[in-house]
Design goal:
Two copies of one chain form a homodimer. Helices cover 28% and strands 29% of the residues of chain A. With 251 residues, the first copy, chain A, is of the alpha+beta class. The structure holds a DNA duplex (19 and 19 nucleotides).
Chain lengths: 251, 251
DNA sequence: TAGTGGTCTAGACCACATT
DNA sequence: ATGTGGTCTAGACCACTAA
């Protein structure tokens, strides 16, 4: 009677990740109108024919994304969408979500040629190579908003110039295209959040008054060898954007 | 010859957490001048007489705190302090770190009596009870800075008024004192980061010009039953404070 | 090829919440 | 008393890196 597609390992994806994807889709689809009706670990083990380890790894992902909450003795409940943040929020807990965050917003960008890394950024990462980085500039908009929610400047390391030239606007995010074109993997992202005043060009692009407060997010994309291959600087209008996150307690 | 205090379970603390505490102390103490000299999983298993599960749980904590990086095939290396963020940074990945973040800064606060929750906050959490919350106000300063790095307003839920009256300034953070005084546990924190203009009182307290950009962090402290028992609103001067974080890649 | 960390199994005992 | 999720063991196989 069990028609569920068994969680296999054929595609190369770990089982716990495939299981997490499956359960995440169910939750976002609204399959659990009653939050307490989420299956227990033992049920998931039986239903998908995997060990408890695999189930727990999958649920750990969902918990870190804020989709479920777990309590010893009681069980697992899905977190109501209302508690997951309001309209202008961007909850992020892993690289996958940075991609997925494009869900209900759209991003268009265009190539700006090559340039030395702006001084603020080169100081920030301690880069003194002085090479020319490929530069892209983009705007993120959200339906129902009266203006863009982000202006993003993206810089690609000089060593990846060949791949950078093949990047096409309006498809995947820049770092995903880079992964594919240059055959590299992203290991982690470091992020720096600061409040700044809108400079004239930023204010114009975001359609906000000059000097109005902006959230600036500096991201460094790092490969497994600790090389920074991409840097992005995003400016978000203070009144149209909030960065939401949740932090689990130590047990 | 092994004089290491065995990782026990007597104190009630899980073994993996005791191990993480031990290794974290070693790293912060500078016991690994050569970052690559960090022990492998099998060495840690043998040295502390625990299973690989326990070791990996401990290392998972340290990795989420950005203290170590791990690579299949190569090994585990401690993350050089330089790569963990510069002077004004506050890296946070769990509740423990929010406490620990007091490391090289000092925080003083004073009671401000009781007040209805400010409208901005009550709207944010959807609270319409209208009760009077205990209010504390504090300043965080950092040695070597020419001004405070945070102005924090903390509000305690009316139900905890009895405990709130016993809170003493200049000791533990408010939420730690609440845990002790009211016998509650904190399950998680939700956080909202936004850029705002300094209002007159905020500007005066932070010693910055009026309307200068500020990072505002709204925190809701939630108990295991999903009740918000504390809310805090922190304002950080844009030019003296950055919020740093790191995000691991999906495997 | 040897050794690393990543995934996975099948068990076990426990603290805790609910019945 | 039952069942939940949290901790922990002892194995195993694998993908990957480095020598």
């Amino acid at each position: 009677m069990d028609l569920s597609i068994a969680i296999r390992n054929g595609n190369g994806k770990p089982r716990y990740q495939a299981l997490a994807d499956e359960l995440r889709a169910e939750i976002l689809r609204g399959d659990y109108p009653d939050p307490a009706q989420f299956p227990t670990e033992s049920i998931l083990c039986a239903r998908y024919g995997v060990s408890r380890f695999t189930v727990r790894e999958a649920l750990r992902s969902l918990q870190s994304e804020g989709l479920i909450q777990r309590r010893r003795g009681s069980g697992t409940v899905v977190q109501p969408a209302a508690a997951r943040g309001g309209a202008l929020h961007q909850p992020l807990s892993n690289v996958g979500e940075i991609l997925q965050y494009a869900r209900d917003s759209s991003y268009v960008f265009e190539p700006m040629g090559t340039t030395p890394l702006p001084r603020k950024l080169s100081v920030h990462i301690g880069d003194a190579s002085g090479g020319r980085w490929h530069h892209f500039r983009g705007l993120r908009t959200r339906q129902g908003e009266q203006g863009p929610i982000a202006l993003t400047d993206t810089y690609i390391h000089p060593d990846l110039a060949a791949a950078a030239r093949q990047i096409r606007p309006n498809e995947d995010p820049v770092f995903r295209q880079l992964e594919r074109l240059a055959g590299l993997r992203i290991a982690r992202i470091t992020q720096d959040i600061q409040a700044v005043s809108a400079s004239a060009p930023v204010a114009a692009a975001l359609d906000v008054p000059r000097r109005s407060p902006c959230l600036r997010i500096l991201r460094c994309f790092v490969d497994p060898s600790d090389r920074i291959f991409e840097i992005s600087a995003s400016h978000h209008p203070g009144d149209r954007f909030a960065y939401a996150m949740h932090i689990e307690a130590d047990k």
